[in-house]
Amino acid sequence: MLVAASRPASTPASLAVLTRRYGAGAPRVVELIRRTGGCTSPIRLVGESIAASASSGEVLARRSTDAEAPGFVLTECGNRRASRCPPCSEIYRRDAYFLVAAGLTGSEAKGVPASVASHPVVFATLTAPSFGAVHRRVVRGERVLRCRPAGQVGQCEHGVSTQCLQRHAGGDLRIGQALCPDCYDYEAAAVWNAAFGSLWRRTVTYLPRELAALARLSVRALRSQVRMTYAKVAEFQARGVVHVHTVIRLDGPDGPETAPTAWATAQRLAEAVGRAAARVSVTVQGSSGRELIVRWGEQIDVRPISPELQNGGVSQTAVAGYIAKYATKDAQIAGGLDRRLRYLRQIELADVTDHARRLMSSAWSVSPRWAHSFGFRGHFLTKGRRYSMTFRALRGARAAFREQADPWLAQVRAKAPGSDVVIVRALRYAGSGLSAAEQAIAASIRVNEVAVSNRTAAWALRAPRPGSAP
Ligand SMILES: [Zn+2]
Ligand SMILES: [Zn+2]
Ligand SMILES: [Zn+2]
Question: Structural domain boundaries of the chain?
């Protein structure tokens, strides 16, 4: 759903429209929209909730959406993408932050032992190799350097200069685009994106072998001393190729509750990550029949994560922040589209750069389903089972918290003091999206919520940061 960029219609006019449609139920609709945080595409649910006593099974109360105007309830769309639903994406970003941070610092309340904070952990960024020269913005200190000044002035076989003396400004659309589209290997770039998941899995498989080799142990002996876990996020670079930022942690043989042996340091882990990344590859047949070897590029950056900034390391809060931020982006930030394509012709018609169009066409030959994201198959944020808690657990905790605040439940509880109350919901899908007037109200709610969250963010920034002066 596209959200109108123009100013939302004034709220009084929208309220009048709502009153015509829902009568006395209009204020309740506004309240329902408010509870979704101004979600751009909420889901309408109809049905019944039953409150029963956990001990006796006796039904204490029933509540049906039929009995109450407007005859439905709303629930958030839950979309991760900032381009699709800003409020839902913001909730996802906070969950992602919490989930990554909990694996670094521990969260006793959510079942992650605080001792993980002392385990060796590294932050690694692995990128794809070059598929041809692209325009780039190179910043050194305060200065923006020339894009591609190297060597003598030359031309490729298509008569395109191999030099670019521009100092590209931040929003320049040429950044990430090929100098010569005919030289650029779009097929290999699309195949790389498509094989990214396999390459990552293979890297995770090789990592214990490399660590074992460094410690002169068998993999089996290693497993009796050390376990590895991770959280990772894929991010699109301007050239339309994904790269990965990952947190990799070492635990003891029985998981997060146990410490790894003393030789297993962050330095050794960093070395093993570098070796595994250099070694792994996946062989894929391209759509042209060419055999392509998918491997990591030379730009591999691995550094220890510590509670404080020191010796080229990164801080825990910075890492959790990066990962959470990237987790709400998609191929759109590299000029791709945020939804699936149905016909090949949509690629021709799309309002995208020539570079993006060519990459999408190549990705279409690999798999039409993932052409809009240049071949990448989704799964932006993934993590090992033992890393921390799950998104599901965080959502469950939030739902339970909200339920506690429900006045209806408070009334039911008052009726049956001393007994545990269970709620059984039998709600079904009855549509999604908002009318124009509802959308305007959601937009005004979003504006207010953003103001609130900006204030909260400003407050958080004033808190002392690790590594800064005491
Ligand atoms: Zn939403
Ligand atoms: Zn350039
Ligand atoms: Zn060329």
Answer: 1-42+433-470, 45-75+390-425, 86-131+185-383, 132-182
Going across the sheet that includes 314-315, the strands are 314-315, 300-306, 121-126, 242-251, 227-236, 381-383
The Cα–Cα gap between 84 and 97 comes to 20
Positive or negative torsion for Cα 368, 374, 377, 380: negative
Mean pLDDT of the chain, nearest integer: 86
List, for residues 172-205, the tens digit of each pLDDT value: 989 999 999 999 999 999 999 999 999 999 999 9
Please answer whether residues 246 and 258 qualify as being in contact, where contact means their C-beta atoms are separated by less than 8 angstroms: no
Calpha distance 358→390 (Å, rounded): 37
- The H or E element containing residue 292 is strand 291-294
Please state whether beta strands 59-64 and 43-53 pair in parallel, antiparallel, or not at all (unpaired): antiparallel
What is the Å distance from ligand 2's center to 155 Cα?
Answer: 15
Tell me the pLDDT tens digit for each residue of 283-308: 998 888 899 999 999 888 998 887 66
Q: Is 306 helix (H, G, I), strand (E, B) or coil?
A: strand
CA of 259 to the centre of ligand 2 (A): 49
pLDDT tens per residue, range 19-52: 999 988 899 999 999 989 999 999 999 999 898 8
pTM value is 0.83
Q: Which ligand is nearest to the CA of 149?
A: 2
Report the separation in Å between the CA atom of 132 and the middle of ligand 3, taken as the mean of its atom positions.
10
3-state DSSP assignment of residue 168: coil
DSSP code per residue over 202-242: HHHHHHHHHHHHHTT--HHHHHTT-EEEEEEEEEE-TTS-E
Residue 393 three-state SS: helix
Nearest ligand to the C-alpha of residue 173? 2
State the virtual CA torsion across 21, 24, 25, 29 in degrees, nearest 10.
Answer: 80
pLDDT tens digits, one per residue of 357-406: 999 999 999 999 999 999 999 778 888 889 998 888 888 888 878 777 78
Other Cβ atoms within 10 Å of 347 Cβ, number: 21
Cβ atoms of residues 26 and 37 within 8 Å: no
Residue 454 CB coordination number (10 Å): 10
CA distance 140 to 138: 7
